[in-house]
Every structure is written in C-alpha cells, then in structure tokens.
Specification:
This protein is α/β, with parallel strands linked by helices and 188 residues long. The chain contains 6 helices and 5 strands, in the order E-H-E-H-H-E-H-E-H-E-H. It has one domain (2-187): Rossmann fold. The chain has helices at residues 15-29, 52-56, 68-77, 94-109, 130-143, 166-187, and strands at 2-7, 33-38, 80-86, 118-125, 147-155. Helix 1 crosses helix 6 (166-187), helix 3 (68-77) packs across helix 4 and helix 4 runs parallel beside helix 5. It is globular and about 50 Å long.
C-alpha cells in the first residue's frame, strides 16, 4: 500500500509539511509506504480548458510542459492521497489549486481514475480561512468519488508553530491512524 502526499506550501519543511509528516508517521507505523511531493519544487500551472483530455482519454493532460502528468500518475498508482495546504487569503495555494484542477479534469474525463481512493486533508492556518481551504480540497475528493477519512488543521504562522498546537497535533495523529486503519481494511 502506498500513500502520496502533496504539500501545497512554498515552504518545504514549514507548518504544512510538518502536518503531512505527522500523518505519514502514523501510516508508516502500520507499514504503509509514503511519498511526499513538494508542489513548489516543480512548475505546475492551471488548466487551460483545452478539453484534449476529454478527446484523448489517455489518462494524461495534453499540456505536457510542467509536472501535472507526473503528479496525476502518482495519484493513480497510490491507494491513498494526503493533500495539505497553508491558508492563502482564505483558500489553497495556487499550486494546490492547479493540481486539483488538472488532476480532476483528467480523472473525470477518463471514467473516474481516482474513484474509491482514500483521502485525508490538512491545513496550516494562522487565524481564519481553514474551513474554506479544507472545503476546496474536500470538494476535489468528493467530485473524484474518493473516500474521505477526515481533515485536520494546525495553527501557527512561523515555521514550526504548529508543533505547539497540542490539539491540532492530536487531531493530525488521529487522522493518520484512521487513514492507516481504513487502508488496511480495504487492501489487506
């Protein structure tokens, strides 16, 4: 079993990355392989609505000048997906939105490639916007007909601040445990 996580933060080891790693730690305790993808390390741009994925039905985006197809392939090969984003003006980062739009359009155009995959969500927030940010990612999972285990937030602004959010850490750890439990029930 494998879970791929996508960190939508431009900070590699910032608060969002910390939250994803906490989920991964619980998965790894149960022998589940994990892979973290840092969205800011490679270019990904938004969907241009060319509809070639609808015409071609080859499980790929026809625009092949960025990392979108690499990321779509990673989701396709995994049994579970963790999406994480900091709150940027009450929503996900542009990189996360580009991933959601591109991967979602390709999946829907190819008969629901991500159907029944297991999904979890985390968001790093300072004051407000966590609900909308998590909803954006949840709506992606729901429209892909994925199974959502849950979602959690960590509160903090500066790098490492989420480590001080005891309740947030408890919820993120529980999220990882529930995800591991469900993956094992479905795939062992």
């Amino acid at each position: 079993m494998k879970v791929v996580g996508f960190n939508g933060s431009p900070r590699k080891d910032g608060n969002t990355g910390i939250l994803i790693h906490k989920v991964f730690r619980e998965l790894e305790k149960e022998g589940i392989e994990t892979e973290l993808v840092q969205l800011s390390h490679k270019r990904i741009h938004g969907c241009i609505a060319c509809y070639k994925c609808v015409e071609n039905k080859d499980q790929r985006c026809a625009v092949n000048d960025d990392a979108a197809n690499e990321y779509i392939e990673k989701i396709t090969q995994a049994q579970g997906v963790v999406l994480g984003s900091p709150v940027y003006f009450m929503d996900v980062t542009p990189e996360m939105k580009a991933l959601i739009d591109r991967a979602g359009f390709v999946s829907r155009s190819n008969g629901g490639m991500f159907r029944n995959k297991i999904g979890s969500l985390v968001a790093a927030v300072r004051r407000a916007g966590a609900v909308h940010t998590l909803d954006t990612m949840s709506h992606f999972f729901m429209s892909m007909e994925m199974i959502i285990v849950g979602r959690a937030i960590g509160v903090g602004r500066d790098k490492g601040d989420v480590e001080k959010d005891e309740e947030g850490l408890m919820l993120v750890n529980a999220l990882g445990q529930r995800m591991a439990w469900l993956l094992k029930k479905l795939y062992e």
